[in-house]
Each structure stands twice: as structure tokens, then as C-alpha cells.
Amino acid sequence: MGGLMSKSRKSDGLLGDAMHQQIVATFNCDLTTIDPALLRKGRLIANYEFNKLDLENSKILSEKLGFGTKNITEPMTLAEIYNQND
């Protein structure tokens, strides 16, 4: 996380404005475990949370990807659907 904090400091204030930089970061954990400095106003432009697809949409996507729906018995994440062969 140290590298990300260093980059976020560089993107703050006048230096960030002059450099015209934005950083895209993804986290595979609960937001409560993220350093609050990364989430403070002015640093975080947008926050998107991707939850599991409901059962019907999980089946639809699995079918479209050619996996069928036999193994879809509960809501699933995109990763779970795309990695059914693993």
C-alpha cells in the first residue's frame, strides 16, 4: 500500500493539477480496511462496488459464455462465472 500512498501524494494539489494525472485503483477487500487517506474527499473521484449477480443473471451470463447453467445454483461473481473451468 506504501507505493499507492506515494502516488496519491504526488497527485494531490498543485502538483497533481500540473501533471494532469489520475490514478485508477482496484481493491479486492472491504472499504473499511482501506487507509482513510486514500478515500478522503478530493482523492477519490468515483467508487464502484461490484456485487454478485443474482441467480437469473448469473445463469444468463454463464449460458452466453457457453458454460451452460447446470452448475449455477446461487448468485455468483463475474470471476466465478468466467472461471468455471478452473
List the helices and strands and how they pair.
Elements: H1 2-10, H2 13-19, H3 36-39, H4 55-64, H5 78-82
Q: What do you see in this structure?
A:
The protein has about 90 residues and is an all-alpha fold. The protein folds into two domains: about 1-40, no CATH class; about 50-85, no CATH class. Helix content is about 40%, strand content about 0%. The chain is built from five helices and no strands. It has helices at about 1-10, 15-20, 35-40, 55-65, 80. The chain is elongated and about 50 Å long. The two termini are about 30 Å apart. The model has no long low-confidence stretch (mean pLDDT about 80).
Straight-line N-to-C gap: 29 Å
Helicity range: 40-55%
Oligomer: single chain
Number of domains: 2
Biggest β-sheet description? none
User: What's the total number of strands?
Assistant: 0
SSE order, one letter for each helix or strand? HHHHH
Mean model confidence by pLDDT = 81
The low-confidence parts are none
C-alpha geometry: elongated
Q: With helices defined by DSSP (H or I, 4 residues minimum), what is the helix count?
A: 5
Class of secondary structure makeup: mainly alpha
Rg, Å, rounded: 18 Å
DSSP strand (E) fraction?
A: under 5%
